[in-house]
Amino acid sequence: MQGGETTYSALLPKAALRFDASDEWSFFLSYSQAYRAGAVSVDSSNGEVFPFDPEYTDNYEMGFRAEFPEQRLQLAANVFYVEWEDQQVPVLRGLFYATENAANSELYGTELSLGWQPWTPLTLTGSLGWVETEFLNYTAQGEDYSGNEFIFAPRFTGSLGAVLRVGAWMASANVSHREHSFTRPSNKETEFSEARTLLDMRLGWEGEHLSAYLFGRNLTDEDYITETYQFPDGYIGATEARGYATYGRPRELGLQLELRY
Predict the structure, then answer these.
(1) Which residues neighbour 5 within 8 Å (Cβ) at sequence distance 6 or greater?
(2) Using an 8 Å Cβ cutoff, are 38 and 51 in contact?
(3) DSSP 3-state assignment of 89?
(4) Are the CB atoms for 188 and 150 separated by under 8 Å?
(5) Predicted TM-score of the model (pTM)
(6) Model pLDDT, residue 99
(7) pLDDT for the residue numbered 4
(8) Which of 108, 175, 182, 232 gets the most CB atoms within 10 Å of its CB?
(9) How far is the C-alpha of 82 from the C-alpha of 101, rounded, in Å?
């Protein structure tokens, strides 16, 4: 049996400025530093350990919020920049994930969201996000991944939603989209998470203590891949080349009951 103990500490400054230009419009600017402790990944097949260091981020953000009560409309937008030091990256080693550190990385992007209530029972929402990611300095196992994108980091995401409430009855629908992303720092086109657009819906009755819902997820039964991995040289127990894919959940229909007391 192996064991170990370590201690980490960090001072995390944060500063923010908000300006209310009017009753409807406000603007903000913020800076914060974040931290995640280091630890050890353990290969359950052979007991090999892979220690990794803490990571730090410097986070810069600016944006606005707007609310128009007469039109029942809310808007929000922001732009952000995040600078990473010793970013913790989960990497597939054989058949398990180990975490290792990329020396320096960055991401930047923007987010936009809105909410609108065209009439009292109906609420409409929408969101859109765009992000660019890059390993600025990342070398591991003899490979240089500098200039590549983060794993599981789609450039574009978005959603549209609607909720209708009439008395104790409610109905909701949500369409979400997620673009293609990579599953390994090498950014090989054969190892990816596939783009998909999913439709979820819900119909329910909500009482004071008991609520019941019929729900459907991925109602169009879209067939999509969440992860693919290639092992051209095989791995322990398999000497020939192997390739694997994980698929997303198919159409799902169900009944949900909630009891509150």
Answers:
(1) none
(2) yes
(3) strand
(4) no
(5) 0.86
(6) 86
(7) 54
(8) 182
(9) 16
CA distance 123 to 229: 41
DSSP letter, residue 184: S
> Within 10 A of 13 (CB to CB), how many other CB atoms are there?
8
Please report, for the chain, the start and end positions of each structural domain, with discontinuous segments joined by +: 14-259
DSSP bridge partners of 44: none
Structural fold of domain 14-259: Maltoporin; Chain A (2.40.170)
Weakly modelled stretches of the chain, pLDDT under 50:
none
Q: Tokens 């090999």 identify what position? A: 48
C-alpha–C-alpha distance, residues 100 and 110, integer Å: 28
Residue where the block lists tokens 């987010």: 111
Report the alpha-carbon angle 40-42-44, nearest 5: 165
* Sequence-separated contacts (24+) of 61-65 with Cβ below 8 Å: 61/28, 61/29, 61/30, 61/31, 62/27, 62/28, 62/29, 62/30, 63/27, 63/28, 63/111, 64/25, 64/26, 64/27, 64/28, 65/25, 65/26, 65/28
Residue carrying the six token digits 């974040």:
34
CB atoms inside a 10 Å sphere around CB 142: 5
Interatomic CA distance for residues 109 and 150, integer angstroms:
14
Give the separation between CA 134 and CA 146, rounded to whole angstroms: 8
